[in-house]
Amino acid sequence: MICRKCDASATILIRKEYWYCNTCFITNTNHKFRACLGKSKTISSNEKVLICLSGGAESTVLLDLVHCGFTLNGTKKLRIIPFFLHIIETTTEDSIKKANLIIEQCKQYNFNLYLININEYYSTNNNILSDPNIIPKTKSDTLNNIRLNVSPSIYHDLIIKIKRQLFLRIAKELDCKTVFTAETTTQLAKKLLCNLALGRGSQVENDIGFADLREKSVRILRPMKDIMNEEIDYFVKVKQLSPVYDYSNTEIGLQSVINNFVVDLQDNYPSTIFTVCKTADKIGSNENTNDVKNCTLCQSNITLESANLTAVDATIFSRQMCFKQADAHDDIEVTRNISEDKNPMFPSIYETLCYSCSRTYSELDICEIPHTN
């Protein structure tokens, strides 16, 4: 086969349709990354940007793409001031070893890496960062205790929200107005389906789109949203990169089921994932954003309690009816008592938490999610 960009022999097949030689494939992937940033026109010259690295294949490619952007000349050059961050999820020796490998990975590109333990989410200190390339010591292991007492699906969702809060907090500490994450088309398709299953359908615009604008002072961008995991795998092989860890094998619970479904789609119907994400891009919120409450955990707009019966109200009513004992002639009184119940199955749902975060909160102790701004 012939490369679709030049007359050289093709070595890479993308989405069972597009053939590339190695050189044109790398050039095309770099172009997707730069074009995604260029189309948005949100990055100003010499802007400070926090780049989040997990050590997986996606973040390894993001690190290489950013480095390549600095080596270009003229208008194509990536003109940002990067700060790199890795969040250590556990205090085990394995996690410390991975953190050291990510430090070495960054040093190969002459970049410094900031590291922070995820349990710093509970810290009340204004400054939680240590010097770059130093692994912080954290005695607390609150999240590990939570992991042992909640379902895997809830824990995975909670970790995503906590990481997002830490990204924003550290970005402000480093005076960065922009955060880069390494989410690809494939990962965003998984996230979309997880959101719908967990009751976060109203949050698709910020969770799946190119930009997450829920925080007014810091925006989270996804410059790799047009790159599929299939391309990530080829990029790693062609450039002989060394990801620290394969995070695709760590998913459990609902996320694992959806991951298997999306992987099967990518293998058999590769264009479907791309179409799903393009459709999600067109989904927006029609809510009036003036004078609304925001969820404490995910910062999404809270859907205020409506006079009309909603699915949440119906769920609360059905659950509480199962636990209420009353005479058959006393249905009206039971209904009135349920409607006035101040402790529903979804605590704080119309006060400080959205529907999905309220479900998460209901499985935790009352003190385990701090009410941060």
Question: Could you characterize what this model shows?
Answer:
The chain is 44% helix and 9% strand. It is α/β, with parallel strands linked by helices. The protein is built from 13 helices and eight strands. The protein has helices spanning 22-40, 57-71, 93-107, 142-147, 152-173, 185-197, 204-208, 229-239, 254-268, 270-281, 311-323, 331-339, 355-362; strands at residues 12-14, 18-20, 47-52, 80-88, 113-117, 178-180, 211-212, 219-221. The strands form two sheets. It has a six-stranded mixed sheet with strand order 5-4-3-6-8-7, with helices on both faces. It has a two-stranded antiparallel sheet with strand order 1-2. α1 (22-40) crosses α8 (229-239). The radius of gyration is 23 Å and the shape is globular.
Report Rg. Answer: 23 Å
Provide the residue-averaged pLDDT: 82
| Helical/strand content category | alpha/beta
Largest sheet: 6 strands, mixed
Discrete helix count? 13
Keywords:
six-stranded mixed sheet; two-stranded antiparallel sheet; 13 helices; 373 residues; 8 strands; alpha/beta
